[in-house]
Design brief:
Elements lengths: L5 E4 L9 H11 L3 E7 L11 H10 L3 E7 L7 H6 L4 E5 L6 H10 L3 E6 L17 E4 L16 H14 L4 E5 L7 H6 L4 E4 L1 H4 L3 H12 L2
Parallel strand pairs: 1-8, 2-3, 3-4, 4-5, 5-6, 6-7, 7-8
Helix pairs in contact: 1-8
Length: 220
């Protein structure tokens, strides 16, 4: 099934001293999503954003907030992230004791549910979960830090996942996060991704122009 192509600029690479200005620039460039990475220093080594910044971001923009929770036991915080304004909540398969119950919790909060996979996790692990999901995020870098290069072996997983979704006739986004550049975004889309997260490729330089260019490159 044909899915809409969406760019999700990641504020992990934005100038946080001027976050509202950065948001205005990606809005002007045509972005529909903003990607919000949450890292706890436990599931991944780094620590990033939390609830206070999400609350400020929700007040600053009408863009859909795509929250990627790289945290242990994410079920502890689903309701709070939903209440503070996340539109899509993606949790890691590896961090969930019971992925099905977490997905149900997200849907009960009226939000779209996603599952993310670390590079070492096979897509076959979530085959039976696909009918319950709105989005799947096979990471193309080790989660935890921005500015990494794409692990090319992970792109095969993107294709495998897209094939699984198509075989089942499901309406489910495939998101890619990690190492996206103007030089590789077209080839990554061709592997089957339709939601693409970009950090430095957006916010390094003119964020409005970069957003517009990346969206143009994703166009069919």
């Amino acid at each position: 099934m044909k899915m809409k192509n969406i760019l999700a600029p990641s504020i992990l690479a934005a100038d946080l001293m001027n976050l509202e200005g950065e948001i205005r620039r990606i809005e002007a460039g045509g972005a529909a999503y903003v990607h919000f990475d949450v890292m706890d220093g436990s599931f991944v080594p780094a620590i990033s954003f939390g609830m206070p910044l999400l609350q400020l971001l929700r007040k600053a923009t009408g863009l859909k907030i795509d929250a990627h929770l790289m945290i242990v036991k994410p079920d502890r915080y689903i309701e709070e992230f939903a209440e503070l304004g996340a539109d899509i909540i993606t949790v890691h398969y590896e961090a969930c004791d019971d992925p099905v119950s977490v997905i149900k919790m997200i849907h009960k909060c009226g939000k779209k549910a996603g599952i993310a996979l670390k590079p070492a996790t096979a897509v076959s692990e979530i085959r039976n979960l696909l009918p319950e999901l709105d989005m799947v995020l096979p990471m193309t870098v080790e989660p935890g830090f921005g500015g990494q290069h794409v692990l090319t072996e992970c792109l095969k997983k993107v294709r495998q996942l897209k094939d699984m979704i198509d075989e089942k006739g499901l309406y489910c986004d495939v998101e890619v996060d990690g190492g996206i550049t103007k030089e590789n975004i077209v080839s990554i889309k061709e592997y089957g991704a339709n939601v693409i997260v970009a950090g430095s490729a957006v916010f390094r330089g003119d964020a409005e122009a970069n957003t517009r260019e990346l969206i143009g490159l994703m166009a069919d």
